[in-house]
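Work through this:
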Amino acid sequence: MIRMEAILFTAAVCLAAAAEAVEAGRREKPVVLPAIAATTLVAVPLDADVHAAAAVGYGDLRILDATGVEVPHVVRDVTRTDRRPLRRTAAATRPIAKPLADDGLEITVVLGPGQDRIVPEAVTLLTPLHDFEHRVSVSWSADGREWTPVVAEAVIYDYTRFIDVRDVTIPLPAAPARGPGGRYRIVIGDVTQEQQSRLAELTRTLAGGEPREVRETTLVDRRPFRIDGIELVYTEEVEQRATAVLADHAVVGFRTAREPDGRATRITVDTRREPVTELTIATDSRNFSRPVSVEQPVAADRDGQPLRGRPLATATITRIDVAGIRREQLVVPLPESRLASYDLVIDDGDSPPIVVTGVTARGPVREVVFLAEPAGGYRLAYGGELAAPRYDTAAIRAALAARADTMPATLGPATVVATPPPAAEPFRLLADGRFQIAVIAVLAVLLAVSLFRAAQRLDAQSPPREGP
C-alpha cells in the first residue's frame, strides 16, 4: 500500500528543489561610484556574494543601466605592476672639447634628445690607455651660462703597471640645484702626461776588458690622454611583469577526520566559491614533513564513507625546528578553482597526525570593467543559467592596453530579482527556468495527491482477508 508519508516526502523534495533553484536565481547589486561628468572607465571588484552565486566562467554577469539595458563589460584579474630601479648608461652624443692653457682639456656634454629627463649619477670616460692618473672636475649648467660645481676634484686612474686596478668613472653626488637635462662640463688636468717607457737602454764602456763606464737611458714619451667616448650612468624605474593581486578569501569552516585506515587525515574546507590558487594550513605541530593532496569532494558511498575525489594538486608541507634548523612550508598551491569545498588529505603514514588549527584560502581578486556615463544608475546582475554574452569591448580593451586609469567602485547590498516577464512575451515566460521549476513542483504535488487518492480507492475495493 502506498503510504501518505512517502507521497508527502516526494512533494516536499520537489518543493525544496524549487525553492533552492529560486534561491540560486538572479540577484542584483547596485554599483556605487562617485559622480562623473564624462564617460569614465569604472572597475568594480567582485565580492564573495557574487562569487557564491555566479557561474564558473562569469557568463551570467550583466551590467545594467537605469533603463535595464545591458552595458558591455570585461571581467579581469586585478593586477599589480611593480617598479624596480635599473642602472642604465647613455652615450654622450654631442661632446665639445677645448684645450686649456695649463695643458688641461675642457669637455662640454649636452644631453641629447631623449636624455633631457635623466639625472646622471656618474660619468664614465672610455679610454683605451693604460698606466695613467688624471684629476677631473665636473660642473653643471642648465643653459651654459652659470655653472654649478658638482665634483670639485676626482681621480681617474689605471695602475696596470703595478696591479690590475682601474677606475674611469666619476660619481656625481645628488644635489638639489642639479635637475634633469642641461649640460655638464668636465675638466681634465694635465691631459698630456709624460709616459716613461718600461724598457731601458744600458750602455757600457770597456777599457782593457774592464768596464769603465755604465750608462742607463730611459725613454720618456709625452702621451696625450685619448678618450673614445663618454657615458652617462643613471637609474631608471622600470616596470616588472604585471602580477595578479592575491587576497585571503572567506573560509566558511573546515572539518577534520581520520581516514578509515588510520594513516591519513582528511580536512574538508568550505568556501564561498571564490577563486582559490593556494591553501595554507595552520598548525602548532613541529618537526614534520608530510605529503598532502587536494581533492574535489564527492558523495559518500552506501556505507557513509567518503569517496576519493578528483585530484587537484599535490605538495609537501614541512615545519622543522630543531638543532638551529628552521624550515617551514605550509602553502599548498593548486590550479585556480572555484569549488564550494575542498578536501586536503595529509598522508601521515604511521606517524601521529598533525593537529590542524585552521586553513586559509587565497586567490586572485577579480573585477568588472565597463564604460560608465553620467547619471547611469548602474547595477550588477548575477546568478542563474544564462549564456555568456557577446559584447563589443574594443574600446574597453584599448583603454586597458593603454593603461588608462580606472575609477574604483563598490557593490551595494544584494536584492533578489523578482520582476515578472512582460505579458506580450508569453514564450519568454515558458523559457524562464524558475517558472519551469515552479510548474514541475505543482505537478509533483498534484501527482502525489492523485496517487494518494488512487491508493485509498484500492484499499476500499480490496476484499477483506479471511481468517485462518
In short: The first strand starts at residue 27 and ends at 32.
